[in-house]
Structure formats: C-alpha cells, structure tokens
Amino acid sequence: MLINDVQEDFRSAFVAVVGRPNVGKSTLINRLLGQELSVVSPKAQTTRNRISAIINYPGAQIIFHDTPGFHHSSNTLNLSLVTSAKKAAVDSDLILFLAQPRTTPSDENIELLDFLKSSRKPVIVAINKTDLISKTQLRAIIENYIRTESFRDVVGVSALTGEGTDSLIKKIISLSPKGARLYPEDYISDLPEKFFVAEFVREQVILQTSQEIPYKSAVIVEKFVEESNRVRIHADIHVERDSQKRILIGHGGSMIKSIGVSARKRIEAFLDCPVHLELYVKVSPKWTTSLSKIRDFGY
Predict the structure, then answer these.
(1) How confident is the model over 242-268, as a mean pLDDT?
(2) Whole-structure pTM over 0.85, yes or no?
(3) N or C: which end of the chain has fewer CB within 10 A?
(4) pLDDT over threshold 70, residue 147
(5) pLDDT tens-place string over residues 158-178
C-alpha cells in the first residue's frame, strides 16, 4: 500500500526491533507508539509474532516490527519463532538491536550481532534500562559495543521512562530511505483486529497462570461479529494436556472467568466499544512440537 505524499524529503522505513528474550522490545515499541499494542509480561518469550506498529513523525513514517527473542532451542515452536525474527531482520530497511546494560556484550549478543552484520542492513544498538545504571557505566558499555564494529551507532534508552527515545528516533529517521508514506496516518498496525483480540486474551493467560501454561497455550479467535451496539467474540484457548485445561478453567470456572473479564476490558479499550467475549479451553495434544499445528495457530 503506497500513500502519495507531497513532501519531497519524506522518509519511510521498516525497522526490525530484535534482541534476546525479555530485553524490553515490546515495552519500547509501546512507549514509542504511546499505547499498549504488544503484549508485555515479566516472562520470557512473550512475543510470538512479528507485530507491526506504525508511527508517524514530522516528515517520516516508521513501521516498527516487534519480534520474538533470539535464543537457542530445539523446540519446534521456538525454532519457528527465531526463524520469524531472523526473517524480519532480513526484510527490514534497518535494524534496531536492543540489549541489556551489561558491561561487555554477551557471547549470545556477539553471535547475534554477527548475524545482523551479515544482513548488510544498517544496525543501531540501543542499550535499554539506562534508568538502572549511571552515565559513567553507560559510556563504558557503549565503548565496548563500539569495539565490535558491527553497526552504525549506539545509544542509551529507557523503555520504561522514555529517556533517550527522542535521540533514538532522530537516528532512525536519518538512516531511513526517502519514500512515500506507506500507510494512512490513522493506522497503528497492518494486522487485523482479530489478531490483537487473540493477543489480549493470551496476555491474560500469561499474567494469571504460571509454570508451563503460558508457553503451552495458544489463542484462536473463531468468531468476530460486529453487531449494532457491540462486538461478539468467541475465542478458543488451546493447551496440550487435560491437566492444563483444568488449571485454565479453575475451580468452578474461576480462572477462565478472571481471564475473560481482564481480557474483555483490554479489548473494549482497543476497539472502543462494548464487547461480549466467550472463551473456551480445548486440548490440542503436543501442538508446540507439531509444525502443522504451529502454522495453523499462526506462528
């Protein structure tokens, strides 16, 4: 989709936001967007899909892609997620690599930076969580990353407070190619509403359950019907075992009710209208190791 723009110096770009699990990618994108679009939780590997956030700036439109965290795993689902993150990096105009504020880059980050360097795309390194360290510590971290010579620039940011994000955006825009606006100004994502409905339900599963449940569950929206005064939604939560289903339902249906109430509030705020939400729990044995099921569930 190309939207004609009369500005000769207008810039537009796809930016892949990549990094290790739980480094703050989703929190940063939500901060830049000014609303919660990507699911955020303390648990690693919360993001499963390449989630786009379209943000308009004076003279520029930047499409950020939130990606699953890079990590080593033999699990079929996790391998699929890492493949998705790598594809997002290769397909982007430039790459924003988010890292923890460690004094020296970890071996995993060096390995990831080498992969990003092979993509031949401009790479900006953002050291996140600068609110937790001193400026002296930040300077030392930046100098250590600069020595790897794998990217265009290094900046410090705090996704939590917003510190350093203005400088980061200026650098991203300066590296973005000149081109027309890609989406209308009122778009915040190119993904359908059903996708975010499923994500908001999954978010509550993550936040309200523990152990293996968040990693063994998937949410599929089966019905999304717009009525005259509300939206009626039917979604299935898939797990792998009957024991997981019992936990999700809870005593007397208490857990699934709590998940539904919290998810409905998020969905109503997102859709800006009343919502009738029905949730059902289904067992899909070993779905996280079945490539066909993983594809069916959209991962």
Answers:
(1) 96
(2) no
(3) N
(4) yes
(5) 999 999 999 999 999 999 999
pLDDT in tens, 99-136: 999 877 777 777 887 888 888 889 999 999 999 999 99
CA distance 116 to 282: 39
**HSE of 8 in the Cβ direction (CA atoms, 13 Å)?**
0
Predicted pLDDT at 224 = 96
Is 82 exposed, middle or buried, given 0-12, 13-18 or 19+ CB atoms closer than 10 A? middle
Residue 48 in this model has a pLDDT that exceeds 80: no
CB 19 within 8 A of CB 28: no
| DSSP output for the chain | --B----TT-EEEEEEEEESTTSSHHHHHHHHHTS--S---SSSS---S-EEEEEEETTEEEEEEE-PPP-----HHHHHHHHHHHHHHHHSSEEEEEE---SS--HHHHHHHHHHHHTTS-EEEEE--GGGS-HHHHHHHHHHHHTT--SSEEEE--TTT-TTHHHHHHHHHHHSPB--B-S-TT-S-SS-HHHHHHHHHHHHHHHH--TTGGGS-EEEEEEEEE-SS-EEEEEEEEESSHHHHHHHH-GGGHHHHHHHHHHHHHHHHHHTS-EEEEEEEEE-TTGGG-HHHHHHTT-
